[in-house]
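Researcher: Structure prediction, please.
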Amino acid sequence: MSELVNTVICFATDAHQRIDHRRKYSNQPYAVHLEQVAKIVASVTDDEEMIAAAWLHDVVEDTPATLDDIERNFGSTIACLVRDLTDVSKPSDGNRAVRKTIDREHLAQASNRAQTVKLADLIDNCTDITKHDTAFARVFLDEMDTLLEVLTKGDEGLMRRARKTMEKCNTRILKLQNDTSNIELGHADDLAFESHLKRQYNDIFTAKDLAEPLLSFDAETSMARVQKLHGEHRHPVATIRIDGEVNGYFTLNNLSGKRTCGSVSRPFSPDQVLSGDAGFAEVVHVLTRHDYCFVSLLGQIQGVIGREDTNKPYMRMWLFGIITLTEMRITDLIKKHFGLNDWQNLIPTARLEAAKTMQLEKARINQQSELIDCLQLADKGLLLINDVELLSRLGFNSKNAAKKVVKQFQSLRNNLAHAQDISTYDWAQIARISMRMLE
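Model: Predicted structure follows.
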């Protein structure tokens, strides 16, 4: 195995391990899937860049790493392959069908090398999903069928294997449908806000509340002048003007040996620019893929947001509000499922006594509350985790998966309350919360 591939394996494995990313159904480390995809690619080619892309194909979508990180570490060629394999649709583009159409058109334009990696990814996912999730498998197989129609530049052998795998899985699903006609899967959106409430909450805070002003230079401006004017500017990024129009950007960490800023100009990716009225959830969605989100005001790119800006008060208020409202929904779900007090024998005695003490203290200061309202979030999560019906309704396959989500949720809330750096320690959870706000 080449030095490049070994380095990529370490990078990809570490990126997924740092957020304890696991396969949804088996709870295996996510690297198991990456390794399988890489092996499938390696079965038809010895192209080390394609094998590297196989290991990296989910890094940008699922971990804190961005496309810029990939380019800095492994070069533009591998970054382009990963970009081809990364969805470009935004949740705000429409429902799942609309977003999948956008992503399918993106893949249709991908290189033959990237399409080959995507075929390998589909083969492994198809087997895993149809084995464990009969309801979603029906959706996945339909989407896979339409994807195969545009992956015509991929390896012919893998295309045949993908179609054979899809047909075999379709046969299995049809048989299961005949055997169990009432299969129904619960959905995690039991905890989601009602659509109108989500929209209203998203409208309260917008990208312009986070954006920092951008420096802008004519393409002919000398590097010496750029460095002099940059001074204490918050972000090491500026835009470049040609004939008075902003048409690219550059970062101050790649100016060495260059005479003018125009020589290091980079184009804005279409999915990297938002209007000033875009919600915070869309900002987070951009920052999962790129180092910077650019903000357009009055038709001109005038602001920039980096991940560190998610530590600002407005973003912290937004996240804390989501957590508070979600906890209210969890509480309501427990009340409806268990009744007013039937849950009490499921909570450890010490935790129950702590809730009763809090209820008495609230009563002392004339704040009347039900006992369930005084229970800690972790304890409410315990009630959900230990109930098979609730687990299913919330879309969890196992207690471990549910425990992980509750633990991350509580970690984010604690870090918000204690002014910790959430952009570093809680990015994966922030991304999940934001995605749900856009569903």
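Model: Residues 248 and 343 are 58 Å apart (CA to CA).
Researcher: Thanks, that helps.
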